[in-house]
Design a protein that fits this description.
The chain has about 160 residues and is an all-alpha fold. It is about 60% helix and about 0% strand. The N and C termini lie far apart (about 75 Å).
């Protein structure tokens, strides 16, 4: 008679990710080197770095989207657009403050973030694609500058209160 099929062993990492994280943290604190799940732990540490880079690029694209709408739809400028612009200008430097090695990252991904923001602006506004320039009409430094708003000057009372 043949051997019964054995069920593959399911690791804690596969079964309960949160419990695995807590287990690995405890083992690290205890300096229990032989018990660490080194390969999965290294992968997860790397993923934290990727998530910070993704967060910067996402927020930069969102900032660009709203700056483009601000510039090319001056009659529709709203308080919610201004707040979204302001929030991204707070969050991005906040990430860079805790991870200074990413200081150049916004400039590195500015072209890609601009293209994403431009496509979203086309989708959200319904304006013709040629309204939004293929090349950014502002720099990454301007985009992140809290005093910079592209397009026609505005007064606070010109902004639509949502």
């Amino acid at each position: 008679m043949g051997k019964a099929l054995e069920k593959p062993t399911v690791t804690l990492y596969e079964r309960d990710f949160h419990a695995w994280l807590n287990d690995q943290a405890s083992k690290l604190r205890a300096r229990s080197h032989n018990d660490i799940d080194w390969d999965n732990l290294a992968e997860e540490v790397e993923s934290v770095g990727r998530s910070e880079r993704n967060e910067i690029e996402y927020r930069l694209a969102l900032l660009i989207l709203h700056l483009l709408k601000w510039q090319f739809q001056p009659g529709r400028r709203s308080e919610s657009w201004r707040i979204t612009i302001s929030e991204q200008r707070i969050w991005i430097p906040g990430i860079l403050k805790t991870s200074p090695s990413l200081k150049r990252y916004p400039a590195d991904v500015f072209s890609d973030a601009y293209e994403t923001g431009r496509r979203k602006a086309i989708d959200e506004t319904g304006l013709q694609p040629d309204v939004f320039p293929k090349n950014p009409p502002f720099s990454v430094e301007q985009a992140l500058d809290s005093r910079f708003f592209p397009g026609e000057p505005f007064a606070p009372w010109d902004v639509i209160r949502d």
